[in-house]
């Protein structure tokens, strides 16, 4: 070996010896810390024996040694058993279920009690308790009142990683944030961000809220290198004990800082706000009482009352604001300092108590307008809940200003010829203003007309417009407006505009439907004149509109939008036709009800594919052809075969679906056939079903198509429904789902056949803006 290589080899050996020395010292230091923790646990057990046996420290130590010798356990294990037997906390629960966890958990507790901050507590958890669970890292998150998270302590992560996660702003979706928002334990295996989390990380994690006295102080996050035993009762009990231990460290008063020392992210400042100056235990309460008394609205100061196990039992009323003294509200709810919220106000269990509990637990403020509140003299109030240290401030404002503004509102309604209404979704009560009675031409003593009966008071030609409005408000529960002609009891008519919107409560339930009617008769002819002027100026649009108008007129000439109920040979027959809302979508739907020369009755509906003039003229050809062919006396299957030939050879290139039935009044038998169409529905004794899906391809598809014929015996009070797919089609649902919904609505029952068809048009919820034909036949 030459002179140049020898020093390098010696240096390498020196570094290895130095590394070995550092490692030996590290192990000795860790062993010393564990020994100190073990001694602290033994000393704690001695104190328990002194209190239980009434002996001195020497006798307690002798008793502990004797117990260890008899049981064959180490003094540390016996000390853990003694402490667990005396304690009634989550550590003792976990130790009884898993004896092997007793020593690690109590050792971690002893180390935490001696720790100066939450950072040291996290290190003690990783050193004593987590190795038995197979975990390799831990993070302790302190929760802020604004929903933010601060990394108060960590172990198993690098300093650089911890610095980048020292603060998580509100609204950032992390693992700990999910557990904080839901106030529950969550086992994670997804890709939510968190400290030390990397893409495609195979490890598993658990986050558990740290709760004490009903308050969620933060979140404990424990990490495994691979998927842990998620949901294991053994693991969860130990984690609950660790979370309770960490929660107590977050609420413990801070140790006096060393001279010149800086407070880090794990430093706790006690139960008041971070960084608050030291004061007496009730200084924050006195300030809050002063604030409550200075508010112009009623207020209560509440503090959590805990049960024997440390859980939330109720809220104690610490102060009643001066605004409530001598008021009817205080007489109705006799609050007094030291009383309990649920005792004085049992109605709070219906929702308010849960809001107060969440604000107390998380610190996140709660505010709601027009919230149902029995504390309020009007039953409805604006409510505000905020947490201040250990206390919750409840403030509410009654809605009595509505009464003060009622005179001004009535004057404005009279000048604008506007009448308002409200329909209570809970009680069904309908409330009208006086001006609305005047618009309808009804005396004030008459019952108000609910929205669902608006069609009965509208002009028949406006039935389609009113139907769309009702479907939007009552079924889709959205804001809607419509203009229509109102038929008054004195025979006159008014052009009205109606607007309505649903009102939902804080929990998303429908509370009411509110709206207004306005008399627009004076503006009607002005609007008509403006519409004519616009048509004259838009020449190109007028040509297209004229073509669509002709198609629509052709449809209306064959099939008026609505018919009254008619009777024929023991049948009560009602029909509805609803054209497309957009003129350029005028389609080829048709219906027909006619008595044949033989005395039998032809019932048919059909739908020509496409829109526009071609579809409308094709509809006329097929409808008239079916009428003529039915006069021969042939059965429905033969009629479908002939109509298919007409579609293929005489009506041009088109396709269509159809269903037709021939009813014999003498035998009460309906013979029917279908061509690619949905089968009719039979309603019998509050039960409904579709007729069988017999064979029958659509018209125009094959020249040699064959059709089957079905027969059904009708009974008295049976109802038969024939319809086109525009009644039920939706873009977000398949056809089978829409058919099932139609059956459910049809079997609810209705007072009359007309009401049944109107309900189907309103509530079936189609959204394709297609033509709709609907025939209802009831055997009497």
TrEMBL record:
Protein name stated in the entry: Serine phosphatase RsbU, regulator of sigma subunit
Biased composition (Low complexity): 260-273
PROSITE patterns, per database record: ANTAR, PAC
Cited Pfam families: ANTAR, GAF_2, PAS_3, SpoIIE
Keywords: Coiled coil, Hydrolase, Kinase, Transcription, Transcription regulation, Transferase
Chain positions covered by the region annotation Disordered: 250-285
Species this protein is from: Nonomuraea wenchangensis
Coiled-coil portions: 8-35
Residues in ANTAR domain copies: 22-83
Keyword NAD (UniProt): no
Domain named PAC: residues: 480-532
Keyword flag Transcription: yes
Molecular function in Gene Ontology: kinase activity; phosphatase activity; RNA binding
């Amino acid at each position: 070996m030459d002179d140049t290589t020898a020093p390098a080899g010696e240096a390498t050996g020196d570094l290895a010896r130095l590394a070995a020395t550092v490692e030996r010292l590290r192990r000795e230091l860790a062993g010393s810390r564990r020994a100190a923790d073990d001694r602290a646990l033994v000393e704690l057990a001695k104190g328990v024996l002194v209190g239980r046996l009434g002996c001195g420290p020497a006798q307690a130590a002798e008793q502990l040694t004797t117990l260890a010798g008899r049981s064959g356990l180490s003094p540390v294990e016996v000390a853990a058993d003694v402490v667990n037997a005396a304690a009634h906390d989550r550590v003792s629960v976990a130790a009884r279920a898993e004896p092997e966890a007793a020593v690690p958990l109590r050792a971690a507790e002893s180390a935490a009690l001696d720790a100066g901050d939450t950072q040291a507590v996290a290190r003690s958890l990783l050193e004593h308790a987590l190795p038995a669970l197979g975990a390799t890292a831990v993070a302790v998150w302190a929760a802020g009142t604004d929903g933010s998270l601060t990394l108060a302590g960590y172990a198993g992560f690098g300093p650089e990683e911890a610095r980048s996660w020292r603060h998580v702003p509100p609204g950032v979706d992390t693992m700990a944030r999910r557990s904080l928002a839901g106030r529950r334990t969550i086992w994670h295996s997804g890709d939510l961000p968190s400290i030390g989390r990397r893409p495609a990380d195979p490890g598993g994690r658990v986050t558990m809220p740290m709760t004490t006295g009903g308050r969620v102080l933060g979140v404990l996050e424990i990490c495994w290198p691979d998927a842990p035993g998620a949901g294991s009762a053994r693991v969860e009990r130990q984690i609950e004990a660790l979370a309770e231990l960490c929660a107590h460290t977050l609420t413990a008063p801070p140790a006096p800082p060393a001279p010149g020392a800086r407070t880090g992210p794990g430093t706790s400042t006690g139960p008041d706000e971070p960084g608050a100056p030291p004061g007496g235990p009730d200084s924050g309460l006195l300030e809050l009482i002063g604030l409550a008394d200075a508010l112009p609205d009623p207020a209560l100061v509440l503090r959590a009352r805990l049960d024997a196990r440390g859980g939330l039992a109720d809220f104690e009323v610490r102060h009643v604001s001066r605004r409530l003294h001598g008021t009817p509200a205080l007489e109705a709810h006799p609050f007094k300092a030291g009383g309990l919220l649920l005792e004085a106000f049992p109605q709070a269990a219906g929702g308010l108590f849960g809001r107060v509990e969440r604000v107390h637990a998380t610190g996140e403020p709660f505010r709601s307008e027009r919230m149902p509140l029995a504390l309020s003299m009007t039953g409805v109030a604006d409510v505000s809940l905020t947490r201040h240290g250990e206390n919750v401030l409840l403030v509410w404002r009654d809605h009595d200003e509505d009464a003060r503004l009622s005179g001004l509102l009535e004057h404005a309604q009279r000048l604008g010829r506007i009448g308002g209404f409200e329909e209570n979704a809970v009680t069904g009560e309908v409330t009208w203003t006086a001006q609305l009675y005047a618009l309808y031409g009804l005396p004030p003593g008459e019952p108000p007309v609910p929205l669902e009966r608006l069609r009965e008071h509208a002009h028949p030609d406006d039935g389609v417009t009113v139907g769309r409005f009702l479907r939007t408000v009552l079924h889709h529960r959205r804001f809607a407006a419509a203009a229509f002609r109102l038929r008054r009891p004195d025979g006159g008519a008014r052009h009205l505009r109606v607007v309505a919107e649903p009102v939902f409560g804080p929990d998303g339930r429908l509370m009411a439907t509110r709206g207004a009617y306005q008399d627009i008769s004076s503006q009607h002819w002005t609007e008509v004149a403006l519409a004519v002027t616009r048509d004259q100026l838009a020449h190109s649009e007028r040509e297209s509109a004229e073509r669509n108008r002709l198609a629509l007129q052709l449809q209306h000439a064959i099939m008026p939008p609505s018919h009254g109920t008619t009777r024929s040979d023991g049948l009560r027959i009602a029909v509805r036709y609803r054209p497309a809302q957009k003129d350029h979508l005028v389609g080829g739907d048709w219906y027909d009800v006619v008595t044949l020369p033989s005395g039998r009755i032809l019932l048919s509906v059909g739908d020509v594919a496409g829109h526009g003039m071609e579809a409308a003229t094709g509809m006329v050809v097929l409808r008239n052809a079916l009428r003529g062919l039915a006069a021969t006396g042939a059965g429905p299957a033969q009629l479908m075969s002939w109509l298919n030939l007409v579609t293929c050879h005489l009506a041009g290139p088109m396709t269509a679906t159809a269903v037709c039935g021939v009813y014999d009044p003498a035998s009460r038998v309906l013979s029917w056939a279908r061509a690619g169409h949905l089968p009719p529905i039979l309603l019998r004794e509050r039960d409904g079903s579709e007729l069988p899906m017999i064979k029958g391809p659509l018209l125009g598809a094959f020249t040699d198509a064959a059709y089957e014929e079905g027969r059904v015996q009708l009974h008295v009070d049976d109802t038969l429904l024939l319809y086109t797919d525009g009644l039920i089609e939706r873009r977000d649902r398949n056809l089978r789902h829409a058919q099932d919904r139609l059956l459910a609505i049809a079997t609810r029952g209705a007072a009359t056949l007309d009401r049944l068809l109107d309900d189907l048009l309103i509530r079936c919820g189609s959204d394709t803006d297609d033509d709709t034909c609907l025939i209802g036949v009831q055997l009497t």
